[in-house]
Design goal:
This protein is an alpha/beta fold. The protein is 25% helix and 24% strand. It contains 6 helices and 13 strands. It starts with 6 loop residues before the first strand and ends with a strand. Pfam families: DJ-1_PfpI.
Length: 219
């Protein structure tokens, strides 16, 4: 597949790691791919760990695995929320099961584990979730970037260059699409912003020990 014909979905949630999100978005755009940022809501602002705001271009519930040639999962603390979203797990599994590419970095292999995709797969991650990966049945590697089939994983922000280079290589191995993806970003997200989005949290319900995160744009 020519990378210019590929549709790449990049997931986002609150507390995403800046380099692990923006580098794939900008690198795939530069390569000519159709890049679509996907989140739980396409009308909600999500904040990074340092306050970079993003409003997704597509709602994950509206995206099918067949729409994407690859799904990219950034790290930070966003995967803790992504892995609890049934629609995210559905999409990631659909992309994998149809033979397309799944790329995950840092904490993002948590999402692979929750989607049932880590068992028997050689992968890497940030070291503090190594035990989680091993307990999920993964063949854990200490390498900075690991490919197993169509799954590409990496450890840290310093590894994103090699991670996305490898991911582009794997996408290029895919067969050409018979029909173009119908998923397009009408207004691509921009890294330019006027006000930061600070992430806050609140109980899911009165007395609940489960907390929900939300971003507040500060003027």
């Amino acid at each position: 597949m020519d990378i210019a014909d590929a549709t790449i979905g990049v997931l986002v949630e609150n507390q995403y790691q800046e380099l692990e999100f923006w580098y794939p978005v900008l690198r795939f755009r530069e390569a000519g791919a159709n890049v679509v940022v996907i989140g739980p809501s396409n009308t909600t602002t999500y904040g990074s760990k340092l306050g970079f705001p993003v409003v997704p271009e597509a709602n994950v519930a509206d995206v099918n695995g067949a729409d994407l040639d690859a799904v990219v999962i950034p790290g930070g603390f966003a995967p803790e929320s992504l892995r609890r979203n049934p629609e995210v797990l559905r999409l990631v599994k659909e992309v994998h099961d149809r033979g397309s590419v799944v790329a995950a970095v840092c904490h993002a292999p948590w999402v692979l584990a929750s989607a049932g995709l880590a068992k028997g797969v050689k992968l890497t991650s940030v070291s503090i979730i190594k035990d989680d990966m091993v307990n999920a049945g993964a063949d854990y590697s200490e390498d900075n970037v690991v490919r197993d089939g169509k799954i590409v994983t990496a450890r840290l922000p310093n590894d994103v260059g090699a991670w996305i280079t490898k991911t582009i290589e794997v996408v290029a191995e895919l067969p050409a699409r018979e029909t173009p993806s119908g998923l397009k970003a009408e207004q691509p997200v921009s890294a330019v912003y006027a006000s930061p989005a600070k992430v806050r949290q609140r109980p899911a319900a009165p007395g609940s020990a489960n907390y929900l995160q939300f971003a507040v744009t500060e003027v």
